[in-house]
C-alpha cells in the first residue's frame, strides 16, 4: 500500500513504535532543537496537532497516581473520581495554557501619525502560579508605551499578558518575559511594566501573611534613559490604580 501520510504523521508513527509517552516525544523534540523547556517557556512549536489531547490523558493518569499516593480513595470517593481529569484539563487549557498554545494573533499597524506621547494600559489582571509550589499568583499589571514605528490595539496588551502569565512563574522573570514579547510586537521607543501581585505561597502556606504583595517593574529604552519620562510613567500608573471606576 502506498502511504499518503504527511511527513509529520510518519514521524509520529515512528515515535509510537518506540512506545514512548507523548511527553517524552515532545521533550525529545525540544532537546534535539537545543531549546529550553523551563516552566515559564512556551513549547507550542513542538506540539503537533492532536497531541495536546493525548498529553491531557497522560497528565490525568499521573495526577490520579499522585492522588493515590496521597492515599485518597479515587475509586470510591465521588468527590475525587474525576479530579485528575479536571486538573489535567485545567493545567493544559486554562492556568498553564501559555506554555502549550501559540501566542494570540496580534496585528501591528504602522505609526502613521508619528505618535510619540506615552500612554499606559491597566490594570490588566495577572493570573499565574508560582513555579516553586504551583499555587496562584494573582494581581494586576500596568504597561506603559512610548510608541515607535509600530502600534498595536489596546486590548492586545491584555491578551499577550494573559498568554505570558498563564504559566508557572517567578514574578521577577514574568515581567521580563512580558517585556520581551511586547518589544517584539510593537518595537516601542520606551517600555515600562509594573506588576503588583499576591502570592498564595505566602498567603495560604509558609509564613501565612495574607496581605503582603510584591511589586516589581521593568523599564526599557527611553523610559530607562529619560528620568522625567520614567516619572511620568509611574505617575500615570498611580492615577490608574487610584481610579478604577468611571
Ligand atoms: Zn511558591
Chain-wise SSE layout:
Layout: H1 7-17, H2 22-32, H3 51-69, H4 83-95, H5 97-100, E1 108-110, E2 119-130, E3 136-146, E4 150-152, H6 154-165, E5 168-169, H7 171-186, E6 190-199, H8 200-203, E7 214-221, H9 222-225, H10 227-242
Helix pairs in contact: 3-4, 6-7
The chain binds zinc ion.
Morphology call: globular
CATH class of the largest domain: Alpha Beta
Category by helix and strand content: alpha+beta
The hetero compounds bound to this protein are: zinc ion
Mean pLDDT: 92
Q: Which stretches are low in confidence, meaning pLDDT under 50 for 5 or more residues running?
A: 1-7
> What is the second-level CATH architecture of the largest domain?
2-Layer Sandwich
The Cα radius of gyration reads: 22 Å
Amino acid at each position: 500500500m502506498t502511504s499518503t501520510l504527511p511527513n509529520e504523521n510518519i514521524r509520529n508513527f515512528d515515535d509510537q513504535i518506540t512506545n514512548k509517552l507523548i511527553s517524552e516525544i515532545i521533550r525529545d523534540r525540544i532537546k534535539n532543537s537545543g531549546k529550553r523547556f523551563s516552566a515559564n517557556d512556551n513549547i507550542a512549536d513542538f506540539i503537533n496537532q492532536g497531541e495536546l489531547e493525548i498529553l491531557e490523558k497522560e497528565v490525568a493518569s499521573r495526577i490520579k497516581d499522585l492522588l493515590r499516593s496521597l492515599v485518597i480513595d479515587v475509586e470510591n470517593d465521588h468527590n475525587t473520581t474525576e479530579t485528575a481529569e479536571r486538573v489535567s484539563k485545567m493545567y493544559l487549557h486554562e492556568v498553564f495554557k501559555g506554555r502549550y498554545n501559540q501566542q494570540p494573533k496580534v496585528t501591528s499597524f504602522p505609526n502613521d501619525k508619528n505618535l510619540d506621547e506615552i500612554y499606559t494600559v491597566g490594570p490588566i489582571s495577572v493570573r499565574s502560579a508560582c513555579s516553586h509550589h504551583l499555587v496562584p499568583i494573582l494581581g494586576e499589571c500596568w504597561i506603559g508605551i512610548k510608541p515607535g514605528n509600530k502600534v498595536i490595539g489596546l486590548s492586545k496588551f491584555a491578551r499577550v499578558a494573559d498568554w505570558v502569565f498563564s504559566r508557572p512563574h517567578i514574578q521577577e522573570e514574568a515581567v521580563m518575559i512580558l517585556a520581551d514579547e511586547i518589544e517584539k510586537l510593537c518595537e516601542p521607543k520606551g517600555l515600562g511594566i509594573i506588576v503588583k501581585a499576591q502570592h498564595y505561597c505566602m498567603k495560604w502556606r509558609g509564613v501565612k501573611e495574607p496581605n503582603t504583595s510584591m511589586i516589581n517593574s521593568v523599564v526599557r529604552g527611553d523610559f530607562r534613559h529619560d528620568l522625567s519620562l520614567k516619572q511620568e510613567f509611574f505617575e500615570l500608573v498611580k492615577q490608574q490604580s487610584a481610579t478604577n471606576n468611571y
